[in-house]
Write a structure and sequence with these properties.
By secondary structure, this protein is mainly alpha-helical. Helices cover 73% and strands 2% of the residues. The protein starts with 6 loop residues before the first helix and ends with a helix.
């Protein structure tokens, strides 16, 4: 077995307790070890991504117990892409948290940060449905602590709402797993795919109930309308670096839908017929529209970006709901783009809030107004899907994938209309924040950072995300080819099944 495959889970699992027990009273040492762990994570995941690029599927059998009896981690093109994206985003956000001083505003930020990375990476790599639940809980427990980092009444209230809503989702997840296990006798994803395909017609009703409950759970994680109510306040009041990392957390829900409803409950499975397209597609379109309206009507910067994240999730889930290889490829390309764009806007919002407050209305000119306004402009056209950045290409791919669908005109109209409303909302906010500010009578403060604050590092992090968006645009051809190969692997899971169930990795 390739022991490198377990590194993205083990590395943060070791770094978090080490930081807590050894360096917690020494902030400089804590930062050094946290960044070192993040750098190693990027190196390890890039190596795994390189190994998976040729289509090889690898399995790691924990305790040397072969599936379906033991717990397995599985690496294919899809999981490799997601763990690389998570690792890169984690490093950038970590640097921003250090540069902005957010990590010093409360206790145990870096330990919780590493535990959340562990949960996210484990969710992308696991080949077992119950352990997907376990990793969900790991990342959620860590996110609970990160949500209220720094204190504050509004942040605490949003955190309580976030906790309650996700606990309900976790409970429903257990019910779904229990239902599925009662019918199939297994929770290994590859084994489930085989068992579900062999089910007699008498057992399809109960397995369909389990599939519906799973879809609801993943819809909660992905903030799909009408199950999205936890996201606006949670993301708006969370510390900016935490909200930026949360940009990948909603993608866990989309990933789980794509994984389960191609591998286990695929289009050819009678027990799950119609679950995706009939239910998921309309909900995704409504999510896109609701998010765009929220962007237009937002009165504070945090909610503006939060609704922008909802809009991007609506576009992503629209592609996922089509359940074709072409649409899945478009969804994967757009996943990378929307994660980087949403994270960039959350970090920019923090730069703005630190200088002028959260409200969107004219105030005094703020320090570094020209630079921050330029970055905001780039992020706005990226999130809205305007040319020339990768969001425009991603939405074109999604629209092209819907060309043969019965609802093609509705899909195109919602995507284009949502883009128009989103760019209007972002333009309105940018005008009030950066241009109308010069109509105010008061003058800007000369104090732009706290004493001793390393002012350059936050801008390094934001420019790194911009560089990622530019690279995704310039290398759209290779990235699209990778996404297409990944989609083909998803819809023809023979190699996945043979590797996991046949012990081919040994």
């Amino acid at each position: 077995m390739n022991h490198l495959l377990i590194a993205p889970v083990v590395l943060p699992a070791l770094a978090a307790p080490f930081i807590t027990m050894v360096t917690r009273h020494h902030m400089d040492l804590t930062r050094v070890f946290s960044v070192a762990a993040s750098v190693l994570m990027v190196i390890f995941t890039l190596a795994l991504g390189w190994q998976a690029a040729d289509g090889t599927v690898q399995v790691y059998e924990l305790g040397d117990w072969q599936a379906p009896f033991g717990i397995v981690l599985v690496l294919d093109r899809l999981s490799a892409m997601m763990i690389v994206l998570t690792a890169i985003l984690g490093l950038i956000v970590n640097l921003y948290a250090i540069g902005s001083g957010w990590d010093a505003r409360g206790k145990n930020f870096h330990a919780l940060f590493q535990f959340q990375l562990m949960g996210i990476q484990g969710a992308f790599l696991t080949g077992d449905a119950f352990n997907l639940f376990v990793f969900f809980e790991v990342l959620l427990i860590a996110s609970y602590g990160l949500m209220i980092h720094g204190g504050g009444t509004k942040r605490f209230q949003a955190g309580v709402q976030y906790v309650v809503y996700n606990l309900l989702g976790s409970t429903l997840f257990l019910f779904a797993l229990g239902t599925i296990y009662s019918v199939t006798g297994t929770l290994n994803m590859a084994d489930l795919a085989v068992k579900v395909a062999e089910l007699s017609p008498d057992n399809t009703a109960l397995i369909r109930v389990g599939a519906i409950m799973l879809l609801l759970v993943f819809a909660i994680k992905a903030a799909l309308l009408p199950l999205h109510f936890w996201l606006p306040a949670s993301y708006a009041y969370a510390p900016a670096p935490v909200a930026a990392l949360f940009a990948i957390m909603t993608k866990v829900g989309a990933y789980a839908i794509l994984r389960f409803y191609t591998l286990v409950f695929g289009p050819e499975v009678d027990a799950a017929a119609g679950l995706g397209g009939d239910w998921l597609l309309p909900a995704a379109l409504f999510t896109l529209g609701a998010g765009a309206v929220g962007v237009l009507g937002a009165r504070d910067i945090g909610r503006l970006i939060a609704y922008g994240a909802i809009t991007s999730m609506g576009t992503l889930l629209t592609a996922v709901a089509l359940f074709t290889p072409e649409a899945a490829a478009a969804a994967l390309y757009y996943t990378v783009h929307s994660t980087l764009a949403a994270a960039l806007l959350f970090l920019i919002s923090d730069l703005v809030i630190e200088r002028r407050g959260v409200e969107i209305f004219p105030k005094a000119p703020m320090a570094q107004n020209g630079l921050i306004s330029a970055i905001f402009f780039v992020a706005a056209i990226a999130l809205a899907g305007m040319p020339p950045l990768s969001g425009f290409l991603g939405k074109l791919l999604v629209m092209d994938a819907a060309r043969d669908h019965d609802m093609v005109w509705t899909i195109w109209a919602v995507i284009l209309g949502g883009s128009l409303v989103t760019i209007l909302g972002l333009a309105r906010a940018g005008t009030l924040i950066f241009w109308k500010a010069y109509d105010a009578d008061t003058e800007a403060s000369d104090t732009t950072e706290e004493a001793g604050r390393p002012a350059a590092l936050p801008f390094v992090a934001t420019f790194a995300l911009i560089a990622g968006l530019v690279a995704l645009t310039l290398f759209a051809g290779p990235m699209s080819s990778y996404a297409q190969a990944t989609a083909e692997q998803l819809f023809t899971p023979t190699a996945y099944l043979e590797t996991v169930l046949g012990g081919a990795a040994k």
